[in-house]
């Protein structure tokens, strides 16, 4: 368990990190939107869709989220912005873990 001073130190570290990141205004709004909405969803599939929806909505980027399947030790598509793409399929050959 952290003591209060440790928490304050972590906060200062994060403040410094964010200054170093030097996000643009739109990047900052995208992150705030992600963090706000991530707390609203109560199932993991909605969270996965949020992960790809943010880059599409804010930056007009197609996005795919691949997750490691622990049983097969392979990447599988969990969410995508592309209509008609089959979920739970491996990535194309050019995508490597």
Q: In terms of topology, how is this protein built?
A:
Layout: H1 4-21, H2 25-38, H3 44-59, E1 64-69, E2 74-80
Antiparallel strand pairs: 1-2
Structural class: alpha+beta
Q: What gyration radius follows from the Cα positions, in whole Å? A: 17 Å
Rounded to the nearest angstrom, the distance between the terminal CA atoms is 34 Å
Question: In terms of per-residue confidence, which ranges show pLDDT below 50 for 5 or more consecutive residues?
Answer: none
Describe this structure in words.
The structure is a single chain. This protein has 97 residues and is α+β, with helices and mostly antiparallel strands. Helix content is 49%, strand content 13%. The chain is built from three helices and two strands; from the N terminus they run H-H-H-E-E. It has helices spanning 4-21, 25-38, 44-59; strands spanning 64-69, 74-80. It has a two-stranded antiparallel sheet with strand order 1-2. Strand 1 and strand 2 (74-80) form a beta hairpin. Helix 2 runs antiparallel to helix 3 (44-59). It starts with a helix and ends in a 17-residue tail after the last strand. The relative contact order is 0.10. The mean pLDDT is 94.
């Amino acid at each position: 368990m952290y003591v209060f001073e440790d928490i304050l130190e972590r906060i200062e570290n994060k403040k410094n990190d964010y200054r170093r990141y030097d996000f643009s205004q739109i990047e900052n709004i995208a992150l705030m939107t992600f963090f706000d909405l991530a707390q609203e969803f109560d199932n993991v599939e909605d969270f996965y869709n949020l992960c790809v929806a943010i880059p599409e909505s804010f930056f007009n980027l197609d996005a795919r989220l691949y997750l490691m399947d622990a049983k097969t030790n392979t990447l599988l598509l969990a969410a995508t912005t592309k209509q008609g793409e089959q979920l739970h399929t491996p990535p194309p050959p050019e995508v490597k873990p």
